[in-house]
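Hi support team,

I'm filing this because I wasn't sure whether my run with adenosine-5'-diphosphate finished correctly. The job status page said complete, but I'd like someone to confirm that the output block is well-formed before I use it downstream. Pasting the exact inputs I used:
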Amino acid sequence: AADESALLATVPDGLLIAGRWVPASSGATLDVRDPATNQVLKTIASATPEDGILALDAAVAAADEWAATPPRVRGEYLRSAFDLLMERKSDVALLMTLEMGKPLAEAAGEVVYGGEFLRWFSEEAVRITGRYGINPEGTGRTIVSQRPVGPCYFITPWNFPLAMATRKIAPALAAGCTVVIKPAELTPLTTLYVGKLFEEVGLPSGVLNIITTHQSKAVSGPILSDPRLRKLSFTGSTPVGISLLKQAADNVLRTSMELGGNAPFLVFEDADLDKAVEGALLAKFRNIGEACTAANRFLVHESVAEEFSTRITEAVNGFVVGRGTEEGVRIGPLINEAAVAKADELVQDAVRRGATVQTGGAPIDRPGTFYAPTVVTGVVAGSDILRNEIFGPVVSVTTFADEDEAIRLANDTEYGLVAYAFTKDLARGQRLIEKLDTGMMGLNSGVISNASAPFGGVKQSGLGREGGFEGIHEYLSTKYTMTPNP
Ligand code: ADP
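And here is everything the job wrote out:
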């Protein structure tokens, strides 16, 4: 469509290094495709390892001046970027739908959610403080202050092209750190557009550098081993996170890791079933199920399991599947063929072990990479679907007999990002908060993400927190000074 081409023409196609948009030094390019049609949307620069080091050079060169820039001024760049993003809301939403596939209404929701990190951290920039005290012996004064950690490298995934970028860029800039960001090769256009927004609001050159590449590993290696780099923040899969942590260890980097999840969604016999179904649909089908916070395992009390599954199946049967730009579409394409194959393998494995498909259960035969929204019930212990992130529109239902069993099943995973639980019993809710091994919880809520809240996991779901008061501390290091009494 004409409006799509016009928008794509406004997206930069180069690398953003030291305030200039430049081609890759090798001339290499990479094609970005629409997963709903498999058509090429735009061809952009694909950085070499040398380009990555040039981007780091720029971040290092800008570091001292940015750290010394008054916090209010740093915050105002973020605030201006937020305001401009809100003016361009429909453009950014369309861009995300084109490169990632999510329905346009959800993309618009991500502009608001992702934009909030810019506003939240514009306000946090001026609240970085320390403390001054007398030591217990009374022999001296202690001063505790905060300094920016230094140049940062960010690697982000394709599922939330805007929010995953702003969630890292905003706190880093607020804290006084400079940045090199490498978005996922599948959805780099939104990050390039964010670079353009910061350019338009006059962010000084070199504070934010962007490299896009189809060789993430080769480009990231030299950056991670460069002693000038001080921080790595990664969002993506646990295996890649583990490999990056090993590389970061050689350089003793500060790290923040937002890795995989395997969220349980508990429905107790005393739950408000209307609310549980509504929450389940949000927790499962938001972003076509392609979220680390997506409900992965529905664990439902045996007395309400049939009614819950029936109601979910009815709702799913009403979902419109299509390109995210089309009116009324709830389920867009998955990101690529591999994502479709993975979802299908998990469903087929569950069925082989005895589960029943209530609806869906197969790829959709049409251009693009679509998987039918699916409900499988009676999923038995040991099925692969209970161990692996589905990352697709598949509801998997297992039953439990009592609260102890529910908690045991919920915690039976190496992941610990988020758990959802629906119950009207307040005491039970409080027990669950204490007993579920996760960094986050939705208690009678199917949505948890918010810029003001500390997002993050325990166990193999990651390290550190993004958002909230905690978010900026990922980019600050504490300095303590001892002085004699005055
Ligand atoms: P997903 O499964 O969501 O695609 P990945 O962990 O594979 O998640 O990818 C997340 C990000 O990590 C992307 O930007 C990708 O380019 C990058 N990436 C993947 N593998 C590596 C690697 N070995 N080294 C550095 N970056 C990587």
